[in-house]
Design goal:
Blueprint: H1 13-29, H2 38-48, H3 54-67, H4 75-96, H5 102-124, H6 131-140, H7 147-157, H8 172-179, H9 200-217, H10 222-233, H11 238-255, H12 273-287, H13 346-364, H14 372-383, H15 388-404, H16 410-416, H17 418-427, E1 429-430, E2 433-434, H18 438-449, H19 457-470, H20 475-503, H21 515-526, H22 579-591, H23 600-614, H24 619-636, H25 642-659, H26 661-686, H27 707-725, H28 730-739, H29 750-766, H30 768-779, H31 798-811, H32 813-820
Antiparallel strand pairs: 1-2
Helix pairs in contact: 1-2, 1-3, 2-3, 2-4, 4-5, 4-6, 4-7, 5-6, 5-9, 8-15, 9-11, 10-11, 10-12, 11-13, 12-13, 13-14, 13-15, 14-15, 14-17, 14-18, 17-18, 18-20, 19-20, 20-22, 20-23, 22-23, 23-25, 24-25, 25-26, 25-27, 26-27, 27-29, 29-30, 29-31, 30-31
Length: about 800
């Protein structure tokens, strides 16, 4: 009988069907005479039910059903044998896994899966005689099934492999969700691999085995789920991680919820109250794992009595009688005993915990909403993780929970449960319980919700400033809170700009020269000194200063000329601040303090925050705060870090381009001297910079994403606006014209070339002759001894010079017409 086992892998269907019929015939006719061969022949039939050939698998299933009918004499003995096969295979599986014999493991898991399929046939049909199999599998996973024996053996060999660690400042999953928060294509959860399993087919067979066991056992298997979850929540070592993985796979089978399938296409099934009660308990207990997420891991704690490798602990002096036993390898010196160190896998443990929460959401569906107060923070915390595996798991979990709870998008889910997230974050920013990642959770929620968060932003801002008052000395906490304020400001700025773009109509372009207007101008210019009004010398006596009659005549009270209830607005009085503007004003006033913070990152974030507020607030609202902070802003232009200087220059640029006359004189008096020395230092630094252009006369860096490039752009745009607003002194104007010539080089960044062209056009309106002289002398078009010092042979600026001069010539046609007239 054993010699027939190779036939299971036979490629011919006739041979496989012959083996199935032979096995069934022997089992049917010899129930009492050959009881020892029943496990072997049943294993043949069970293995054939997993055949890839539908005719073979269908035939084997049909024969097994016939053997287990009520009329069969071998029914009771075969049912007992099937249960013994299931138990023996579960016990044998931990022995086969360390040997890395994938074929044997697939065979064993296939046998168990086939038995569970038979149980499902009886479970679906209550009148079927196969229902005792489902009952026995339920007992196997129940309190009396010995799960402590075979379950612990599985946990000792099923070790999950840590996924490759890719640490990034912003995870790919988070960027994907932020770029397209409304639409997120369904993708299955990422799954880790097993250490003792080399092929994906074997891994899938183990997953299918757990699913089949859960489906066959039903609610009776919830005891095994609780047992595995208790092991998983007891620590973060590899056994706890494996216990959480087994619990997830069993719960998927029991609840018929699959993390590898789109929940929007699955059928909504009714679940038992026992299953729903367990799901609620699992959500609460799993969410509590994030309460102690920053406790010391066991990996950093050596075993008791074992000294650390760096800090040698001397052996105590002891009085010993008898012989000193030598080491087995005859080493005279005593080696330090090395005990087993506990290896933790916090990354996998958190990812599988999030998977467990997702499965419970699939079980409870819309009844999962009251549990958002516990579950949203773990999901969002995983989403902001710098580890790609955990972040991707958080992304899939957020999408899965969104679909299961019938929300249109993750943004709608977070907005509807905004108070839950804010409460979770505030509780984790208290003195008794501080989680530095809580600020990242709040920031990602604001980015995901988008413009709808403006109505709730007041609560966020109050929470942030309350925490800033408490933790202003902790750099990492302050930086996170300032980042949250920056995200709020970005959204408010975007909203204000969108309102302006909707209210304003695009201007109609008119031709530069209107001959009719110039004719009228010439006519007025010729007679401008002639008086056309005759003076009346007659004295009419005193005249009233206002119209005769009552101030409020009754006959005109309701004529419709002036509404009664509309308050009159004075021409110089500004409209009241909107809620967004009032919130922005509060943020600006309370953030200026951090311009002098010792952390360079915080100083840069505050400067960017102030830059965003320029587009939201008016001059009268913003400039008092800027006036009080102006000395600190100037000091930031001399900061030691380039990105802080770039942020300060960006703020000055925003103020000059938006605030107008209030900033022009400050730029020439306070900012331009600093810009002039800054340009000379950057020119020297570009010669030794690793990312600068390596060509002759190269200007700037090769990348447009460097801080120096942003600094150059801000300086040029600032001085362009200053040239348009105020007529500077000739010396300052000449300094600007000479300082920015190198950016006209053809090898400079295209963006810088365009910006500096606008600067020279603005300088041409002030002194066109100075611009013409400097540019033509630099390009070599004018050769003179007095202008020889301006010539630069390494700069190719001819094309840009010709373009600037042509534009200036076309704009000067208007002036020439007036002068000729």
């Amino acid at each position: 009988m054993k010699s027939l086992s190779p036939l299971i892998q036979h490629p011919t269907s006739s041979a496989l069907m012959g083996l199935a019929e032979f096995s069934a015939h022997v089992l049917r006719t010899t129930p009492t005479t050959l009881p020892q061969i029943q496990p072997l022949l049943l294993s043949y039939l069970l293995a054939l039910t997993n055949s890839e050939l539908p005719s073979v698998s269908g035939k084997a299933t049909e024969l097994l059903s016939e053997l287990l009918t009520a009329s069969s004499k071998a029914r009771y003995s075969l049912t007992w044998t099937l249960m013994r096969i299931t138990r023996d295979n579960l016990i044998a599986l931990p022995v086969l896994l360390p040997s890395q014999s994938d074929t044997k493991v697939e065979h064993v898991t296939g046998i168990i899966e086939a038995i569970c399929r038979l149980a499902l046939i009886g479970k679906d049909n209550t009148k079927s005689n196969l229902s005792p199999i489902a009952f026995e599998i339920g007992k196997l996973l129940g309190p009396t099934g010995g799960v402590e024996k075979w379950g612990w053996s599985l946990l000792s060999v099923l070790e999950l492999v840590d996924p490759p660690v890719t640490v990034t400042s912003t995870s790919a999953a988070q960027m994907m969700l932020e770029n397209e928060p409304e639409v997120s294509a369904w993708l299955p959860f990422p799954q880790p691999m097993l250490k003792n399993v080399s092929s994906m087919n074997t891994f899938d067979s183990l997953v299918r085995m757990f699913h089949a066991l859960g489906k066959a056992a039903g609610d009776a298997g919830l005891f095994a789920v609780e047992w595995f979850v208790n092991i998983g929540q007891s620590g973060k070592d590899f056994k706890a991680v494996t216990g959480m993985w087994c619990a997830c796979r069993l719960l998927e089978g029991i609840s018929d919820v699959s993390l590898s399938e789109d929940p929007s296409t699955s059928l909504r099934l009714s679940r038992s109250k026992r299953l729903e009660k367990l799901a609620r308990g699992l959500v609460k207990s799993t969410a509590q794992l994030w309460d102690s997420i920053h406790e010391d891991d066991p990996i950093d704690t050596p075993s008791e009595g074992i000294p650390d490798g760096h800090d040698e602990v001397p052996n105590p002096i002891q009085h010993v009688r008898g012989l000193i036993r030598l080491h087995d390898t005859l080493q005279i010196t005593r080696g330090t005993p090395i005990g087993p160190r506990i290896t933790t896998q916090p990354l996998l443990h958190s990812a599988l915990s999030v998977q467990l929460i997702s499965i419970t959401a699939g079980i409870l569906e819309t009844r999962f909403s009251p549990l958002f107060i516990y579950s949203l923070y773990p999901i969002l915390h995983s989403l902001v993780s710098p580890f790609s595996f955990l972040a991707e798991t958080g992304l899939r979990a957020l999408t899965f929970v969104t679909v299961c709870t019938s929300y249109a998008s993750p943004a709608n889910l977070l907005l509807s449960n905004f108070d839950y997230v804010l409460d979770s974050v505030s509780r984790r920013l208290s003195r008794q319980w501080l989680d530095v990642d809580a600020t990242k959770v709040l920031a990602v929620m604001i980015r995901l919700v988008g413009s709808d968060i403006v109505e709730r932003a007041g609560d966020v801002v109050e929470e942030c400033f309350d925490r800033l008052d408490e933790y202003h000395g902790y750099e990492i906490v302050v930086e996170g809170l300032v980042e949250v304020l920056g995200e709020v400001m970005k959204i408010i700025k975007f909203e204000e700009l969108s309102k302006l773009s909707n209210d304003q109509t695009p201007p109609v372009r008119q031709s530069c020269i209107d001959q009719q207007k110039f004719d009228s101008f010439i006519e007025w210019f010729a007679h401008r000194s002639e008086s056309t009004v005759e003076e009346d010398q007659e004295d009419y006596g005193p005249a009233p200063r206002k119209g005769w009659g009552d101030d409020n005549p009754p006959d005109k009270a309701n004529t419709g000329d002036q509404p009664e209830d509309v308050p009159e607005v004075m021409p110089d009085e500004e409209p009241p601040l909107t809620s967004s503007q009032a919130l922005t004003k509060q943020i600006v006033q309370r953030s200026i303090y951090f311009l002098t913070h010792e952390s360079t990152g915080i100083r840069a974030r505050i400067l960017n925050l102030l830059s965003s507020s320029v587009a939201v607030l008016s001059e009268s609202t913003l400039m008092p705060s800027i006036h009080s902070a102006w000395p600190f802003i100037l000091n930031r232009l001399a900061d030691t870090e380039v990105f802080v200087v770039s942020a300060a220059a960006g703020l000055v640029e925003a103020l000059v381009t938006s605030m107008g006359s209030l900033m022009f004189r400050r730029v020439w008096d306070d900012v331009w001297p600093r810009f002039r020395s800054m340009l000379s230092k950057l020119e020297t630094a570009d010669k030794i910079n690793a990312v600068s252009h390596r060509i002759r006369g190269g200007v700037g860096t090769e990348s447009v994403y460097t801080h120096s490039h942003r600094l150059y752009r801000s300086i040029i745009n600032t001085m362009t606006a200053a040239l348009k607003g105020v007529d500077p002194q000739d010396s300052s104007n000449w300094e600007v014209i000479v300082a920015f010539r190198r950016f006209l080089h053809s090898e400079a960044a295209e963006e810088l070339q365009q910006c500096v062209q606008k600067l020279y056009l603005a300088a041409g309106t002030v002194n066109a002759d100075a611009v013409w002289l400097a540019l033509t002398a630099t390009s070599g078009q004018v050769t003179s001894t007095s202008t020889k010092f301006l010539y630069e042979s390494q700069w190719d600026i001819v094309k840009n010079v010709e373009l600037i001069l042509v534009i200036e010539l076309s704009s000067s046609e208007v002036i020439s017409i007036v002068l000729v007239s």
